[in-house]
Design brief:
This protein is of the alpha+beta class and 72 residues long. The chain is built from two helices and three strands. The chain has a domain at 21-68. Helix content is 35%, strand content 24%. A three-stranded antiparallel β-sheet has the order 2-1-3. A hairpin with a 2-residue loop joins strand 1 and strand 2 (32-37). The protein is flat, with a radius of gyration of 14 Å.
């Protein structure tokens, strides 16, 4: 059986997790998706409401829709 590297496993798990967010932005804190929206600004504003003034969102990512991906 072929062993996959940790980064390959992480990438596979991440892509399975974010599949339902295709075409949207997601906000991440401690490796958990806490909010999603149609724009990075919307995600940032929603995250501020959820987290409060003392905590900060760690990352905002855009998850492209399948139709937007280039395939060979």
């Amino acid at each position: 059986m072929k062993k996959e590297s940790l980064s390959t496993q992480s990438t596979i798990l991440f892509s399975q997790k974010v599949k339902k967010y295709q075409g949207k932005y997601i906000g991440v804190v401690k490796d958990k998706i806490i909010v999603s929206g149609k724009s990075a600004k919307e995600v940032f504003e929603l995250a501020k409401k959820i987290l409060g003034p003392k905590k900060k969102i760690e990352a905002i990512y855009y998850i492209p829709a399948q139709k937007d991906l280039l395939t060979a």
